[in-house]
Amino acid sequence: MLCHLGDETLTIHAPAKLNLFLEVLGRRADGFHELETLMVSVGLYDTLRLRHTTSEHIELTNSGIGTSGAGQMSEIPEGRTNLVVRAAELLREATGTSAGARVSLHKRIPAAAGMAGGSSDAAAALLGFNQLWRLGLAHAELHELAARLGSDVPFFLSSSSAAICRGRGERIEPVHWPTRLYFVVVRPATGLSTAEVFQNCRPQEERRSVEALATMLAKGDLGQAGQQLHNRLLEPALRLNEDVNRLRRTFAKLPVLGHMMSGSGTSYFGICAHRKHARTVAARLHATRIGSVFTVESRP
Ligand code: C5P
What we know:
CATH architecture of the largest domain: 2-Layer Sandwich
Structural class: alpha+beta
Bound molecules: cytidine-5'-monophosphate
């Protein structure tokens, strides 16, 4: 999360994530699923700008992809349904402040794509309002609020750009690698609902562990790491969405080190050896008109 305070405006760049590994360990009594997942934050950012106002309201304006009038999709929640506003309200409840703010949110991370754009925005809002309103909440308190907002939100509060996340996703174990990772990512025209994908997932007796992948990444052996990518949510996503099927077939024919769906989909990524390799693969994907194509890198 990159923060910058200037002229009364706090600017925060909220990154996207990719899941290199996601195993569903079982269904819990609270309806959520127990997970083991390896998440990497990548250099594709939404931008939040927070400003003080004299009113007690949180005024949110959205721009960028997925917002009304901005092309193919109109999927970014507006007003109180947006996690940014919910984060502000949760902080007001927790601290008793009645401060208001004007928030502009510029979206670049595709929605309903398994890249946690909304969760990252929520984490950015928690960090940003804590600073703008001088609330002084400690990391542990923000972490608790983050987990209430969503399973992926706590990951973005951590200063680490990669982590193995367990529980619902809120138990974070930071990991570090010697090498930067290069990805090509495609978000097809359609999205998937996280809740629906989890509902259609059948946890398996035979579970995979993240250890093999973590070891390969620690060694910087990307060729082997590419073969260890795993996502238990892929199978239900393939049943629910034809675009994910097309992406999988397309990536299988491309010269990438490995490929997988991120989170609950629908975005699908390939690991590349270096930046130029990612750009070459992206150009081939562009030509197929299979969706919006991005090249992204893991963050240092
Ligand atoms: O936590 P979040 O709001 O992002 O989750 C969205 C939905 O995804 C949940 O309502 C739940 O249906 C499903 N989910 C789950 N197990 C998880 C995370 C999410 O079943 N660990």
